[in-house]
Amino acid sequence: MSKTLKILFLCTDFFFILYWLVTFFHLIPEEYLYKDYQNELLVIWNWSFFPLDILTSFSGCLDTR
Questions:
Q1: What is the 3-state secondary structure (H, E, C) of 39-56?
Q2: Whether this model's pTM surpasses 0.70
Q3: 16-59: per-residue pLDDT in tens?
Q4: Which residues contact 64 (CB under 8 A, 6 or more apart)?
Q5: Which of 4, 10, 33, 39 is least surrounded by Cβ atoms within 10 Å, i.e. has the fewest?
């Protein structure tokens, strides 16, 4: 794997993890959220991707060592 590709993969994994941290800790101000951000169905749908995203990110970080 080329060095550039490895860096791009690691950046993608890092920002996936960062996204979930920002989402979990509600770090985005209310005025920047989309209209239906508090819609229960959308919240459940969004969080349903958490296990897959985290597993993919951590395995990606391990695979690019």
A1: CHHHHHHHHCCHHHHHHH
A2: yes
A3: 999 999 999 999 999 999 999 999 999 999 999 999 999 999 99
A4: 1, 6, 9, 10, 13
A5: 4
